[in-house]
Amino acid sequence: MIREALVVSAILFSIGVLGVLTRRNALILFMCVELMLNAVNLSFIALSRLHGVTGQVFVLFVMTVAAAEAAVGLAIVISVFRHYRTLDLSRIRLLRG
Amino acid sequence: MSISPAASQLVWLVPVLPFAGFVANGLLSLVPAWRGPLTETVSSRRRALVSAIAVGVLLGSLALTLWLTQAVSGVDSVVTASLGEWIAAGGFHVDWMLRVDRLSVLMMLVITGVGSLIHVYSIGYMADDAGFARYFAYLNLFVGFMLMLVMGANLPVLFIGWEGVGLASYLLIGFWFGDRANAVAGKKAFVVNRIGDFGIMMAMFILFANLGTLDFAEIAREHNSLGAPPATLICLFLFLGCAGKSAQLPLYVWLPDAMAGPTPVSALIHAATMVTAGIYLIVRNAVLFSSAPAACLVIVLIGALTALWGATVGLKQWDIKKVLAYSTVSQLGYMFIAVGAGAYTAGMFHLVSHAFFKALLFLGAGAVIHSMHHALHEAAQTDDAQDLRNMGGLIRTMPATGVLMWIATLAIAGVPPLAGFFSKDAILSAVAERAISSPLAEASLGPIPGRIVLWFAYGAAVLTAFLTAVYMTRLMRYAFHGNYRAGPVAEDAMRDSPWILRGPLIVLGSLTLVGGWLQLPEVIPIGRTGLLDAWLAPVSASASALLAGSGHLAHSTEYLLIGVAVAVALAGILTAFLLLKPGSLVRKAEAPADTGIGLVLANDYYVDAAIERGVVGPMVAGARKVLWRGLDLGLINGVLVQGSGQLLRVLAGLASRLQGGSAGGYAWAIALGAVVLVGMFTLRGAQ
Question: What residues have CB less than 8 Å from B540, skipping those under 6 apart?
């Protein structure tokens, strides 16, 4: 069982990474980050079978942080959209050296 | 070597007293109420205090010197005193060591004796000057350093005095610094002397590297372990220093300009004492010099050339002080001929007698300038108070000064029985004696045999004696005889100088009259002969013998030499009387310009212009084009300062490319980094 769960987790994480790297829309990027977090959550749960409940406790933490992150991130995304009228990250590059 | 304990405990006071006077008068000159505007004269009460301090410390030093003279009068008596350690660096030790022997005490007597007279004279000469206290502070400072120079027991202490007198000389030449020319003259003296100081320092380095000591007594003891090349090199470097301080070719150029200072300063520093420091240095190291005959021949040659040079230029100078300045250059050349030829006693003898008569001449000239200045001022004329063409007939208003200056003139011309006759004759006969037969004549200077150099020096000295008689008689006739040329109004305003100016003149005149008895030659036994020879024997006799050999001149030859010297002097005076026409002179403002050879001589062979073109010009151009534009602006400012900034800008520009601002780029970077890190850890875990 653990094996399958870890494989699913790895696939989910890779999809997330790929999404972050290739997509330009900030909202989708955001969802991909959530996907990666949840892939990690899945592997925490799976491995808690072997190493005790610490992993499950960590999942609760991750979900809390993810919720907070979602709140802050979405607020940023909204204000970015209001300012630029777009969420295309390749056009938002004010902070360049 | 016996050491007198009481003397060695008090010997430090000799130089310290004038330094104390310097501090006291220096502080007084800084008190605001005493300074006043530059045009204001100092009140008589303040003047009295300043002069009491200045003259008092000098008289104190003079008294101590007289007492020390008695303390070192025993054969081989030397008073030494260490005032503490100065430098202790590994094997190199230098103490603040003073050493009084018969040679230094002779110098100290001249410095404090003539110095006291000139201090007294200055009270009158500088009475109207706003910088009265400052003047005496500098004068005391000079005497302090000069005493240190002659009392130092090792080269570094001597060098401190050497530099100190240079400083005092600089300060006093530029005493009236409000006039730019005076300040420039002071600077010139200082800079030219630096060249000489380089020589002294090189000599010290080589001496230390070879002997490990700079103490005079130890150098004299151990100089035999030096090879001939280092000894010659050391002597030549020392002589370079002497040439700077004692105004020899080619470093004499500062001395004529040094006449910008007050006249008593010219008398004390630039005639009687400081410029003779070079002679003293050579006699002090007589043993070292006598072991390097080639260097001695160089000294003889340079001395002879300088004597001739100064005498010829002196022929056509119009400024009364310039005549005396070139005369000093020429007489110093005489002294170097003597010490170069190993006739150390003769050199010191001429130093002492020259101090008497040249100080007398300068102080007399000062009295003349003082009176001329007042007369021209009263007549509201702007004529030059120092120009011979504006004078004439002064013997009528200043008879005492005129007579005393005639005595000094006859002395410097070499008329018996004045001091200058004996000292000059001592040099001439010593050079002739060595030219006829001596180890020095057998030595050679490169391809030139010593005999030729010595005969050349003898010829130059005789010719110089003739020229000296001519230019001095010219000075006296133009200044003191004939008609007064600066106009009747000024003539009516001419007054004799006050007694305080005449008093020191009378003392110096007496010394000029009897100074010859210091060292009477054996062939003229009108008193005890060879006193100075006996006095200096412990210091220089053995060194002298090394160069002179033991041969003595036959009496007939000596009489012949004396006859030649006297005949030449009288011929010079006669020539001046026959050839010069004071009646045809007109005052400076209306005088025609010099022409032909006279113009060349009046401009000192255009040496200053040549130095300006050949040395100063290229140096300034080099400093401007290479050092300033090239090195400073180009390399340091352009490449190093601006360049390092530019380099950082370029590097930062490259680095800032990393911050492209696109979130995607960052994400890729992070992802790749993560892959690399994870990969590395995985691979390491697999091992």
Answer: B103, B283, B286, B344, B345
Residue whose tokens read 């003891």: B221
- In terms of CA atoms, which chain B residue is nearest residue A25? B664
For B239-268, the DSSP string reads: HHHHHHHTT-TTSTTHHHHGGGS-HHHHHI
Tokens of B141: 């400072």
Using an 8 Å CB-CB cutoff, list residues of chain B that contact chain A: 655-664, 667-668, 671
CA angle B612, B616, B621 (to 5 degrees): 120
Residue of chain B whose Cα is closest to the Cα of A20: B667
Q: Give the position of tokens 């113009």.
A: B599
From the list B656, B657, B662, the residue facing A90 with the nearest CB is B662
Contact check, Cβ <8 Å, A21/B664: yes
| pLDDT of the residue at B5 | 67
Q: Which residue has the tokens 């700079």?
A: B214
0.85 surpassed by complex ipTM = no
CA dist., res. A72 & res. A75, Å (int)? 5
Question: Which tokens hold the place of B54?
Answer: 């200045």
Residue percentage of chain B with pLDDT more than 90: 54
Q: If you ran DSSP here, which 8-state letter would residue B97 be given?
A: E
The pLDDT value given to residue B1: 43
Residues in chain A: 97
pLDDT tens digit sequence for B172-226? 999 998 889 999 999 999 999 999 999 999 999 999 998 888 999 888 888 888 8
Give me the helix-helix angle, B102-125 and B499-514, nearest 10°.
150
| Cβ <8 Å between B660 and A90 | no
Residue of A nearest to B674 (CA): A17
